[in-house]
């Protein structure tokens, strides 16, 4: 089990051949109050970089792109009634979807926690 | 998804205070402005329940003086300025020859002079336009050394009354000079939230002291541009550049109420013939409120379709209404669809989201009519 991060501020929790994806705490702070999340349906096949979910704050809609290729196995249905879970627990209960890992080599392109922290520091 | 502050941006007199309060700053109309402090929903809700303090010093303030400021400005706007009593204020708009809107503005009569407040993004163009149109004998004095604070919400009168008791008897859309804790201000009972409240014109070098004084009251929370936008959206108030612009007329925008009987009859402002014709014969599209059924916001430029899939209009501004507790939108639709409860589809990310046309405001206005 390991946690990786994308430049687009997604976290990817890797457990065996499946991954859970959400947005980072930094991302939710930037977005502010989340008021709507459109999560993908199970069975949706995605390529890395595809638009797979939408997180909307009061101000704006932000597309969430698939950090790796694979097939969505579950969208987090609890976000429908409680989108602000992303604000309160972005890297836990606020997960957005789970997916299979279609190509394990794509994981190597993601950052580890230290590299992501550097990435964020570079933006501030 | 982040907007970074640029060093080219201008700063309001409250810049240091915003940073001290931990505001998230964004570029807006050339200014580095606070979009939020604690959070948009918290600031919005606090303003509806108690009161919020907004820095709107980026807006343009100016005075028109001379032999006939009223006649001169009436040649540029459809609002009835001759009917203004001293200290009375009007909402009107600068129109172009097609009846489109160059900007919306507030005009206050101060003795024989007119005081105007215009949008930040338009102010340079507005002031050039006004100055060019005033004619001989009138002058536009731009007042860059003024800040502007808005104190909005049901507790605003109680809070401001502690420093300037006379503010409590003022009626909505009137203004007068008031001293607030030794600071000489001009205060109007007006705002952009749908709530009771005040807009306070203050010398720039004392704006921070005034803000600190008001923020020291327990009912007052600093509120940013994010809450300002969600409040005005719920109040059904137009945002220039989104809901009104050079391609929309006051009649299409549902602002006919700003044009008096005399001005409708006499004309005498740019685009008068277009606007008079529209008053007489109606318009092809109108600005309406749209309430999405579900939870997905419909943002600006979302297409609006009828139930047969025909595109009948477009959202001009939309988002989440914290007081409504769901998505709300303002948009233009063909006139045959403007009746309240008309079902429509909002084409969000290619999919039809059902909704309906509704009467605005989305959140009831609470103005103090005295």
Shape of chain B: globular
Number of strands of chain B: 20
Uncertain segments of chain B of ≥5 residues (pLDDT<50)?
Answer: 1-5
The radius of gyration of chain B is: 20 Å
Question: How would you spell out the order of helices and strands of chain A?
Answer: EEEHEEEEEHHEH
CATH architecture of the domain at 10-56 and 146-234 in chain B: 2-Layer Sandwich
Percent in strands of chain B: 25-35%
User: How many extended strands of chain A?
Assistant: 9
Mean pLDDT of chain A: 96
Helix content class of chain A: 10-25%
Question: Treating each run of at least 4 consecutive H or I residues as one helix, how many helices of chain B?
Answer: 9
- Low-confidence parts of chain A: none
Question: What percent strand of chain A?
Answer: 35-45%
What does this protein structure show overall?
The complex is a heterodimer of chains A (124) and B (370). Chain A is an alpha+beta fold and 124 residues long. Chain A has a single domain (2-103), classed as OB fold (Dihydrolipoamide Acetyltransferase, E2P) (Beta Barrel), CATH 2.40.50. Chain A contains 4 helices and 9 strands. Chain A has a 6-stranded antiparallel beta sheet with strand order 1-2-3-9-8-5. A 3-stranded antiparallel beta sheet of chain A has the order 4-6-7. In chain A, a hairpin with a 4-residue loop joins strand 1 and strand 2 (10-15). The longest helix of chain A is centred in the last third of the chain and has 9 residues, at 113-121. Chain B is built from 9 helices and 20 strands. Chain B has helices spanning 15-20, 40-49, 69-74, 123-133, 156-161, 204-215, 225-234, 261-266, 272-281, and strands spanning 10-11, 24-28, 31-36, 51-55, 60-66, 89-95, 101-110, 113-118, 138-142, 146-152, 175-180, 183-188, 197-203, 220-222, 285-292, 303-305, 311-321, 326-334, 343-348, 351-358. In chain B, the strands form 4 sheets. In chain B, strands 11-12-13-10-4-14 form a 6-stranded mixed beta sheet, with helices on both faces. In chain B, strand 2 and strand 3 (31-36) form a beta hairpin. Chain B starts with 9 loop residues before the first strand and ends in a 12-residue tail after the last strand. Among the domains of chain B are: 10-56 and 146-234, Probable tRNA modification gtpase trme, domain 1 (Gyrase A, domain 2, 2-Layer Sandwich); 284-358, Aminomethyltransferase beta-barrel domains (Elongation Factor Tu (Ef-tu), domain 3, Beta Barrel). The model of chain B is unreliable at 1-5 (pLDDT under 50). Chain B is an alpha+beta fold and 370 residues long. The chains are: A alpha+beta (124), B alpha+beta (370). Chain A binds chain B through residues 9, 27, 30-33, 35-36, 38, 54, 56-62, 80, 83, 123, and chain B through 1-2, 24, 35-36, 39-41, 44, 226, 229-230, 295-297, 299, 319-320, 322, 327, 349.
């Amino acid at each position: 089990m390991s946690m990786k991060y994308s430049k687009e501020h997604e976290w990817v929790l890797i457990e065996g051949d499946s991954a859970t994806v959400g947005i980072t705490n930094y991302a939710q702070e930037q977005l502010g109050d989340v008021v709507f999340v459109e999560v993908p349906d199970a069975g949706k096949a995605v390529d890395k970089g595809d638009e797979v979910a939408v997180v909307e704050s009061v101000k704006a809609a932000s597309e969430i792109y698939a950090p790796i290729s694979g097939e969505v196995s579950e969208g987090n249905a609890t976000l429908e009634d409680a989108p602000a879970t992303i604000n309160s627990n972005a890297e836990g209960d606020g997960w957005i979807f789970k997916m299979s890992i279609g190509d394990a080599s794509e994981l190597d392109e993601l950052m580890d926690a230290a590299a992501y922290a550097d990435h964020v520091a570079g933006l501030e | 998804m982040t907007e970074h502050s640029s060093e080219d941006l201008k700063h309001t007199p409250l810049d240091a205070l915003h940073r001290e309060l931990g505001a998230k700053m964004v570029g807006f109309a050339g200014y580095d402005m606070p979009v939020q402090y604690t959070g948009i929903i918290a600031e919005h809700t606090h303003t509806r329940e108690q009161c919020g303090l907004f820095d709107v010093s980026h807006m343009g303030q100016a005075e028109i003086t001379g032999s006939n400021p009223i006649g001169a400005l009436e040649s540029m706007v459809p609002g009835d300025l001759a009917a203004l009593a001293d200290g009375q204020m009007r909402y009107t708009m600068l129109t172009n020859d097609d009846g489109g809107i160059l900007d919306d503005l507030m005009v206050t009569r101060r003795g024989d002079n007119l005081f105007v407040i215009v949008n930040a993004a338009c102010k340079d163009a507005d002031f050039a336009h006004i100055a060019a149109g005033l004619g001989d004998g009138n002058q536009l004095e731009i007042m860059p050394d003024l800040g502007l604070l808005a104190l909005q919400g049901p507790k605003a009168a109680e809070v401001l009354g502690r420093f300037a008791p006379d503010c409590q008897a003022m009626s909505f859309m009137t203004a007068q000079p008031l001293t607030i804790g030794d600071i000489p201000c001009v205060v109007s009972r007006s705002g952009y939230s749908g709530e009771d409240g005040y807009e306070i014109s203050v010398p720039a070098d004392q704006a921070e002291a005034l803000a600190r004084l008001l923020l020291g009251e327990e009912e007052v929370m600093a509120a940013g541009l994010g809450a300002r936008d969600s409040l005005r959206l719920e109040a059904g108030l137009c945002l220039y550049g989104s809901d009104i612009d050079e391609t929309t007329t006051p009649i299409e925008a549902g602002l006919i109420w700003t044009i008096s009987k005399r001005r409708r009859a006499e004309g005498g402002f740019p685009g008068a013939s277009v606007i008079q014709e529209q008053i007489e014969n109606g318009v092809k599209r109108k600005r309406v409120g749209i309430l999405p059924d579900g939870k997905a916001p419909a943002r600006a430029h979302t297409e609006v379709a009828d139930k047969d899939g025909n595109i009948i209009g477009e959202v001009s501004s939309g988002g989440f209404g914290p007081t409504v507790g769901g998505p709300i939108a303002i948009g233009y639709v063909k006139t045959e669809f403007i009746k309240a409860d008309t079902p429509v589809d909002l084409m969000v990310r290619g999919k039809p989201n059902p909704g309906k046309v509704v009467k605005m405001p989305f959140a009831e206005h609470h103005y103090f009519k005295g």
